[in-house]
Amino acid sequence: MDERTTRFTGQEKFFSCNTLVCLLQALKGHSTTIELRNESEVCGVIDYVDGFMNVTVRPARFTDAAGTCARFDSFFVHGRQIRYVHIPDEVSPLSAIRQQLEVNQRGGRAVRSDEADQMKRSRRTKKAQAYTRETVRALAFQEGSAGAAAGGSASGSSAAPPTLPGRSDDDADFV
Prior knowledge:
This protein is of the alpha+beta class. It has 6 helices and 6 strands, in the order ααββββββαααα. It has a domain of 107 residues: SH3 type barrels. A hairpin with a 4-residue loop joins strand 1 and strand 2. It comes from Amphibalanus amphitrite (Striped barnacle).
């Protein structure tokens, strides 16, 4: 499917911006292995991923639980059947998530920053975007602290890790 002709529904866009579906969408064009819930696996290049994590792989090699292989020109995997997706070594998960979130939040098209500021956003969308920014910030902190633990120094300060927003933080404002 071509992104120029495919439009996500509001629900698909919400899922792709607020779950790790955005990481899977960022793997489009990369060769990977998808392990399925029935102990089989599909290997190939990811061609398309929708907001519900349904994946199309082209060309694909399907291996069932017994080890029997079959080759397909195109193979569709229902999102509910996915157990694991192997992320290729050349892909940095954090940068891939950041890049895909930028694409998802601007609707798959280039939007000038002043135009993006003028777009109407619901309270739910604003809250979801704030949560996504906090998640990316926490992932960046973990990646930086992992590098510091390996021998490098991230910034030399021992700042507390950012906390992810949760119900308890929101409820504390109203008590």
